[in-house]
Please model this.
Amino acid sequence: MSSVFHLLLEKQHSLYTVPVTASVLEATQLMNDCGIGAVVVTEGEQCVGIFTERDVLRRVVAQRKCPVETCVADVMTREVLCIGPETCVEDAQEIMMHRRVRHLPIVNAEGEPIGMLSIGDLNAHQVREQAAQIGNLHDYLYGRV
Model:
């Protein structure tokens, strides 16, 4: 079983964060520039929330709030489900499926964010695993083992 830490190493992407004082406009510009669907919201070194595309739609656009004047702290998801780097991939998949979330911040023992796992990361990992398994089965069937 792989851990989410191994996925972070495969992914080789930076963690994108915004301070709790950032405006919605600043956060969404970062998300657009980096092609990501969520950012971790931090206060100091601690993860205090997550700001996602869903938050933008439900808490900004649908409520007709001004992105320049609205602080991320006022519209972020505060009750963030975080996982540790030792969490196995299968457990992360279960969490995402049952909690209906598309992003999971990964935090260290001190609660400091060290990465973000997305449903796309999990899907890409699963495709790689299945391709390797198919290759192994093909080699076995045709005597290349």
Remarks:
- The longest strand covers residues 46-52.
